[in-house]
Specification:
Helix content: under 10%
Number of helices: 0
Shape: globular
Radius of gyration: 13 Å
Structural class: mainly beta
Strand order of the largest sheet: 1-10-9-4-3-2
CATH architecture: 3-layer Sandwich
Bound molecules: FE2/S2 (inorganic) cluster
CATH topology: Rieske Iron-sulfur Protein
CATH class: Mainly Beta
Distance between the termini: 34 Å
Length: about 110
Amino acid sequence: MSASVPGYEKVTPADMESGELRGVRLQSGVRVCVGRSGSEYFAVCEECPHSGFPLSNGTLLDGGVLECGWHGARFAIADGAVLAGPAREPVKRFRVVVEDGFVFVGDSSGS
Ligand code: FES
């Protein structure tokens, strides 16, 4: 029987390497960038707040910094804050849990 987590949606196997990014689509149609930094999984809005480039096509740098692949904006995955422009708005984060070998994404954490 496959695991389920109330309030969360199973999106991808938890088989990612540290530094890997993966674009997924929730049942609602919302696109999310799931990533792994060290042992931690995270999820942010797939669309860069600057001009909408898919953040899963960016680069996850050391120290939990996500760099957009188009114009190089940088975000802190811990809270979504902008670390380098041209983006001005933080990237929205989503709640994440890992259960039974899968990554589950919940609602927005508000940041
Ligand atoms: S679209 Fe991401 S920095 Fe411009």
